[in-house]
Amino acid sequence: MSQHRQPGASGRTGAIPALPDLPEATVSRLPEYLRALHALADAGHETVSSEGLANAAGVNSAKLRKDLSHLGSYGTRGVGYDVALLVDQISSVLGLTQCRTVALVGVGNLGHALAGYDGFANRGFRIAALVDADRSRVGEVINGLVVRHVDELPQIVAEESISIGVIATPAPAAQAVADQLVAVGVTSILNFAPCVLSVPDGVDVRKVDLAIELQILSFHEHRKASLTALPATGGSALTALPGGFAATDTQEAIGT
Amino acid sequence: MSQHRQPGASGRTGAIPALPDLPEATVSRLPEYLRALHALADAGHETVSSEGLANAAGVNSAKLRKDLSHLGSYGTRGVGYDVALLVDQISSVLGLTQCRTVALVGVGNLGHALAGYDGFANRGFRIAALVDADRSRVGEVINGLVVRHVDELPQIVAEESISIGVIATPAPAAQAVADQLVAVGVTSILNFAPCVLSVPDGVDVRKVDLAIELQILSFHEHRKASLTALPATGGSALTALPGGFAATDTQEAIGT
DNA sequence: AGGTGTTTGTGAAGGGGTGCACAAATCGCG
DNA sequence: CGCGATTTGTGCACCCCTTCACAAACACCT
């Protein structure tokens, strides 16, 4: 967090949704709750207890209740939460009531897969434009979309109201692409390139680095191997590896 | 963290590496430091100051120093850190001195891209096996590897010493695949399927959900739009939110 | 209506992470 | 050899987050 929000700045009662200024940790878990709720709705459940939803989302039930309490009181004591109501509430808070359009830059190996990934459309995102800096790829059709040149970004943003830019280029090209996205008014970027982007204030960048995830797993694997190789100091339960970060913080990040 | 380690259990001086029991937040940042260090080494730098490395990794310099201090004192006051030495140290701590082999399950859209992603090989990981449950895909050659059936996992693990399993299947199939991986002895899983996996203690699962990242961005986008629509109570700066959270987080991992 | 059982919402305690600010340590130079 | 400049390593205070535990609230049954 680069800066803390000033304490009273969000009070502002009277506005339409009255933004509750959610803790960042809560925001990062809301999408997981939403996914679990959709699954429960598909399974026919009309209400869920905090315990049930917490299990489906892989978190502690107390944590779930506190998270939801930040959105307001949408549960009924003795009964639980109304699934449909909660879906609407969380969707609204996340800004998913309107379908958000995404521009994807870089149609290499990874970009190709992202362009065809159906997990986006299922959850309220529409890839509206494919862009690449390599003119030899311009014109190629992927999943019904024509690849356009990165220089056309201004027109593209004018045509479709792009709200998020996804960077799937090689690392050396990423910063230039980010600059171009910012220049045409994009204020949210999802970066798959393994490098740090520098952007002006007001622009959000989230980074996903597939290799980093593997390296973190490698660390734990390494540690587990070292421990089991030791003659067991005094604790006998080393085989079970009580240690654990097993499924907790894991099982949901990107949390960390 | 599902459980805390008992206070004195890790002291155990005398073992070969003397595992320092790193904070989880530090572990999630080490890969980013490693990437930045490689870039610096390629650029010809032999030493870096904490300030320089922190900038390259997108973190605070004090945080970086504290993180590195957990590994031991490998810096020289008044000079900085030896790049090559630090690369070796971090690689060693992360267990990257040996090349780790990965089995990838699910060669659909996403799996296909992961199989061809060169970011893995570059950083010490080798995809040693491609596996799918769909027999119509078995035999297909991707990036020089033949797709094999998931039932062959026992033989595959016997041939290659698999240390990490990557699940890139649709959500409904993920749990069954995880069970099979665990059954053949895999204790680290990277899960791209949008669902919660349940695994026994001792098995680490990290989850990467591309749609969740977009939803988190959507929230901030939504909030920014609501705020700018307001007459601005007092705060004008919206804060870029460059920092992030553990694992897959903003501008640095996942993160978390 | 009243009692009982269930579940939410939250106060409070504790742990962990972050960042400031400074002392200790090292280098280079006169 | 001593001094100043530079940079690391870390004690400390603060803040956020997590978790426990419990009172308040609601539904259902008799």
TrEMBL record, chains A, B:
Q: Does the keyword Repressor apply?
A: yes
The UniProt keyword set, sorted, is: Cytoplasm, DNA-binding, NAD, Repressor, Transcription, Transcription regulation
Q: Which domain of life is it from?
A: Bacteria
Query: Where does this protein bind DNA?
Result: 32-71
Sorted alphabetically, which Pfam families does this protein's record hold?
CoA_binding (PF02629), Put_DNA-bind_N (PF06971)
SMART domains in alphabetical order: CoA_binding
The residues listed in the UniProt record as binding NAD(+), with positions renumbered to this chain, are G106, V107, G108, N109, L110, G111
* Major location (coarse): cytoplasm
Q: Where is the CoA-binding domain?
A: 96-196
Q: Which GO terms describe its molecular function?
A: DNA binding; DNA-binding transcription factor activity
Gene Ontology annotations for the cellular component aspect, listed alphabetically: cytoplasm
Subunit structure as annotated in this protein's UniProt entry: Homodimer.
State the function annotated in the UniProt record: Modulates transcription in response to changes in cellular NADH/NAD(+) redox state.
UniProt family annotation: Belongs to the transcriptional regulatory Rex family.
The name under which this protein is listed is Redox-sensing transcriptional repressor Rex
> What high-level taxonomic lineage is stated for the organism?
Bacteria, Bacillati, Actinomycetota, Actinomycetes, Micromonosporales
